[in-house]
Specification:
Its EC number is 3.1.21.10. Its cofactor is Mg(2+). Its main location: cytoplasm. This is Crossover junction endodeoxyribonuclease RuvC. The protein has a single domain (about 1-165), classed as Nucleotidyltransferase, domain 5 (2-Layer Sandwich), CATH 3.30.420. With about 170 residues, it is α/β, with parallel strands linked by helices. It has a five-stranded mixed sheet with strand order 3-2-1-4-5. It contains five helices and five strands; from the N terminus they run E-E-E-H-E-H-E-H-H-H. Helix 1 (about 40-60) runs parallel beside helix 2 (about 75-95), helix 3 packs across helix 5 and helix 4 crosses helix 5 (about 135-165). Helices cover about 50% and strands about 20% of the residues.
Length: about 170
Amino acid sequence: MRILGIDPGLRALGWGVIEARGTRLSHVANGVCNSDGDDLGERLLSLHNQVGEIIDAFQPTQAAIEQTFVNKDGAGTLKLGQARGVALLTLAKAGLPVGEYAPNRVKKTVVGVGHAEKTQVLHMVKLQLPGCDPKGPDAADALAIAICHAYYGGTQQRQLKEVVRA
């Protein structure tokens, strides 16, 4: 199973691709999509195009994205939600099944603590994906989201296939 993890953001959208074979995980690629454009529509289109290029280049079979949490800055949350929506649309257009995970669940899965710092997430991603060098904190978070999906989403998919076979 090849998983594309997405850490949504309007200015910087982190992405990471991992390969999961049973319980074995390996790093494929990672990076950050920086939005271009003078207005919101152009920036969202830029993210859509870049995520589409990543899907074409790495051919994931599943995807995972972080859920948005509402904070004190309503306008910022709305913009983040729009970037997340564009990413979800791009993934759906490619026909990828998508798992959605809360930030605390991702951190708890990868680090063991739901309120872990970004440096802890980066450290644990490097330990779980030997040889991986994330291109920044957003890419590290995206890889963590993919790892979370490998544990939870992959298990759910396998269980569903077993139920269908029975």
